[in-house]
Design goal:
The chain is α+β, with helices and mostly antiparallel strands. Helices cover 31% and strands 22% of the residues. The protein is built from four helices and five strands; from the N terminus they run E-H-H-H-E-E-H-E-E.
Amino acid sequence: MLKPLRQGLPPLDPAAVSDAASCALPARYEAVREARSFTRKTLGQWDVGDRFDDVCLVVSELVTNALRHAVPGESERCAGPQAPAVRLHLMRWSERLVCAVRDPSHATPVPGDSDDFSAESGRGLFLVDSFSDSWGWHPLAGTLHGKVVWALFRLPAAAA
């Protein structure tokens, strides 16, 4: 059901980006609410209402996964000079929107094995797969450490 995880974004011309916004998120669970608020405000400015609920759900799942699985524990954060960054990026092309969450881990995102749909966790990537048009991840290169997990949403032409 889930697509291969290590895949790149479909071809998108970076020069054709209509709008882009980004925000750094603190390494605490309140960041999920901050990410939803940032997404709500940004999509409102971009007049992308048709996919709003789907995008906010996916952003919540991607940020929660980054905080839960990719950010070191409290004792490790205290040992370093600063908390590792989780960053949310929103990019809009004329008919596509990409939400990307950068985190400091190189670990591959792994879907939960649970067939128990009443479970309170373990279904995040299943939801991302269900509510976005495609998704994937890729490791960062160069001086950047970690990975980016992204989700793509197709937009109606009127949203351009």
